[in-house]
Amino acid sequence: MLEFSHGGDVNGFAKQLGCCVSEVIDLSSNINFLKPNIAVNFNALSIDSYPNYDKLYDAVAQNYAIQASQMELFNGGSSAIFSLFSFLKTKGYERCTIYSPAYLEYKKAAQTFDYHLKHINRLESIGQMVLPNSLVVFVNPSTPDGALYELEDFLDEWLEKKCVVLIDESFLDFTNAKSATQFLDQYPNIFILKSLTKFYSSAGIRVGAMISNKSNIEQFQAIQPAWKISQFDSSYIQEALKDTKFKTITKAVNAKNTLLLNNVLEESLLFEKVFTTSANYILAKLKNIDAQTLQKYLSHHKIMIRDCTNFDGLDETYVRIAVKSEQSIKRFKKALQRVAQKSIS
């Protein structure tokens, strides 16, 4: 598979199978399968003038219990990542330490801006020392395994070594854990990434937030273009955040369906290990079969999963399964049973 490929290419998958996208069960994409209630008439939006982001900033800041001056918004999380890597390179940072496996855009950004890159394998040697004076990247909850970490001890070490720290909290909304925003006053060199598209089921709506203290954000904003987010994106996110029941419903349903999916994987004869998760996806290690072969079998059932071969620290025996609807999980269970019968016979 391609080095930086991701899950979620449902259109390409459907085209390959010669079926409609609506027939595909996409368990490769970790986008929330539940959607907020919104009431936006996009035909009525005023788009004849340049967008003003004041209301959007206020809504997102209130959602994350921070000040609008502590945040810069971007056209999605990936855009925020590349912008921060570029910004810190101008500040003299030459090294990057990524706790891996991690979201692959971090590795891509480090290579793009020619950082000296070091990986620390979270699953085997998380206590390994970081590079001094480096940009440290830590995804929490992690991807693709969904582990949730307490960060206080890590932060003390990172800041002692004069590192700038980026905490990716793109999936924290699926949990009840406290955000690293609680450390903004205590640690001056900390940035926190929030991706609204994951939780609010809107991968096609591109809004991501980079959070830090006011001084860092002012310097960061100084090199940003005036308009990065469309009026359509802005209006959708503002309306989504008005659905006050959505968080509670999503957490409850996700917890129930995560347990259901975990049981399916644990009961299957195809898996050697199922990882404990705090996010809306589960990492599992296969036995007697590899990810590509499993995906080939599942294609006959029009089911997509995430082959994790290209994650640093993982190999062709790892797959990630996204938590989706109960109906989708039951269909996945039946497909796994048939695959197991074929592989055993």
| General shape | globular
With strands numbered from the N-terminus, the spatial order across the biggest sheet is 2-8-7-6-5-3-4
- Give the topology string: H per helix, E per strand: HEHEHEHEHEHEEHEHHHEEHEEEH
Whole-angstrom Rg: 20 Å
The portion of residues assigned to helices is 25-40%
Show unreliable segments: none
Mean pLDDT value: 91
Main sheet characteristics: 7 strands, mixed
What does this structure look like?
The strands form 3 sheets. Strands 2-8-7-6-5-3-4 form a 7-stranded mixed sheet, sandwiched between helices. A 4-stranded antiparallel sheet has the order 9-10-13-12, covered by helices on one side. Strands 1-11 form a two-stranded parallel sheet. A hairpin with a 6-residue loop joins strand 9 and strand 10. The chain contains 12 helices and 13 strands. 37% of the residues lie in helices and 17% in strands. The model has no long low-confidence stretch (mean pLDDT 91). Helix 2 (54-63) packs parallel to helix 9 (231-241), helix 3 (77-90) runs parallel beside helix 4 and helix 10 (246-267) packs parallel to helix 12. It is of the alpha/beta class and 345 residues long. The radius of gyration is 20 Å and the shape is globular. The protein has helices at 10-17, 54-63, 77-90, 104-112, 122-125, 152-160, 196-199, 214-221, 231-241, 246-267, 291-299, 326-344, and strands spanning 25-26, 71-74, 95-100, 116-121, 134-139, 164-168, 190-195, 208-211, 271-274, 281-286, 303-304, 306-307, 318-322.
